[in-house]
Amino acid sequence: MNKITIDKNKNVPLYIQLYSQIKRFIENGSLPGGYKLPTIRSLAKELGVNNITVINAYKLLEQNGYIYTKVGSGTYVCEDIKKEEDLDESFKLTDQGEIPLKKGIINFASSSLNPELFPVEDFGDLINRVLRRDGGYAFEYQDTRGYKPLRESIKEFVKKDEIFTYVENIQVISGGQQGIDVVSKALINFEDSIIVERPTYSWALASFESRGAEILEVDLKKDGINLEELEDKLKKFKPKFIYTIPNFHNPTGIVYSEEKKKKLIELAEKYETYILEDDFASDLSFTEEKILPLKAYDKYDRVIYIKSFSKIYMPGLRLGFIIAPERLVSSFLKAKYVTDLSTSGLMQRAFDLYLRENIWKNHIEEIKQVMKKRFEKMGNGLQMLKNYVEFEYPKGGFYYWLRLKDNISAKNLYSKCLEKNLLIVPGDMFFAIKKETNFIRLSFASCELEEIEKGINILKEVLEGESNENGIYLPII
């Protein structure tokens, strides 16, 4: 077996170090399907650790589908690991709206709005105005920090959310995902620890893993992250940052309480770390309650604030921004420069007018009206499924997060729904380590009301079949 190194001076638990290395060897093909792993006793002796360390690592690998045990024979690497990963990657791409869908499929997976809802006419007029005004200069490379008039417009735009910053702290980026990548490049070195919510956004996990980060999960409660568990990990591991989606969380839809937002910032200051706030949907609130970003409470300059304009305005726009703590501005600038020099000048100039002239306000109100009707339609339909699922009503965003009852497998459900032309997302892709297999995420972003009704009926039909297969018999009422 490949050389495994255990560092007892690191703040990462020994079993996690062992799990991560074996997982990596399996994923890159160094340990092929069918390979017999060393016995617990022999591997523990070789590495100089106790048997419990190896037992816990093997248990975690088995829970996540990397290995299996034959009683009386040994522990082996599972076959077709790559196929399973490819399936997960397809789920992630579907979430980004990047998988071609066959005609007639009902898409409860994608977060992308229908193209008919994009402000095409307004934006077309703005692009023509920019071209008439700036001519060829609109196509020049921009300052890596971003087109300064746009950064000035962003500075004014975020005041509605009680964020007060300087133009110099604003970095224009090519969408929210690039923002996560820029922060990862700037702050994460190999095997640095970072903390994420459990569950969390799958593409953020992918970005952190690509930098070789040790990912530490902290459970979410109904009002936000578990603060006791978080503080315990902050003490032990001294992470580079905490990644969080405090408003209309992806995938759960949770909104942090104001008290928890303030306490989270206090903990970041106490333990001298940063918070990476991913704000992808705070504009899409279905309540009259004023819900502010975490950054609005940031009196210590500990929050790295990322906002994307892609989800709600136009996915192909690929535009967003970072508001950086003053200490990190230059680091993010260097990371952005290495990534792609600068974001499209034409799009930046057009969006500057879009914000500066408050054209965005009408669009947001129209989108909220459409999305709220879809949100209510899906919520009403899900009431029919209470025998099979548990869920909470979100206050905004795009998603319902469902826990499946009676040990129904989310991936089996995914496959059977797909056979009936309904696309859903199994929840295990939103967990970093010990994956949960009985959750699904449903999005109403890209479906008309009639499609939502039809899709819920398909889901009900499949769930009824799954429950009966599991031996569950419901009373006639």
Automatic annotation (TrEMBL):
Highest rank taxon of the organism: Bacteria
UniProt keywords, alphabetically: Aminotransferase, DNA-binding, Pyridoxal phosphate, Transcription, Transcription regulation, Transferase
Pfam families per record: Aminotran_1_2 (PF00155), GntR (PF00392)
Keyword Nucleotide-binding: no
Cofactor: pyridoxal 5'-phosphate
GO terms assigned for molecular function: DNA binding; DNA-binding transcription factor activity; pyridoxal phosphate binding; transaminase activity
Domain HTH gntR-type per the UniProt entry, residue ranges: 12-80
Similarity comment: family membership: In the C-terminal section; belongs to the class-I pyridoxal-phosphate-dependent aminotransferase family. Belongs to the class-I pyridoxal-phosphate-dependent aminotransferase family.
PANTHER family registered for this protein in UniProt: HTH-TYPE TRANSCRIPTIONAL REGULATORY PROTEIN GABR (PTHR46577)
Record's subunit section: Homodimer.
Protein name per UniProt: Transcriptional regulator, GntR family with aminotransferase domain
Species annotation: Thermoanaerobacter pseudethanolicus (strain ATCC 33223 / 39E)
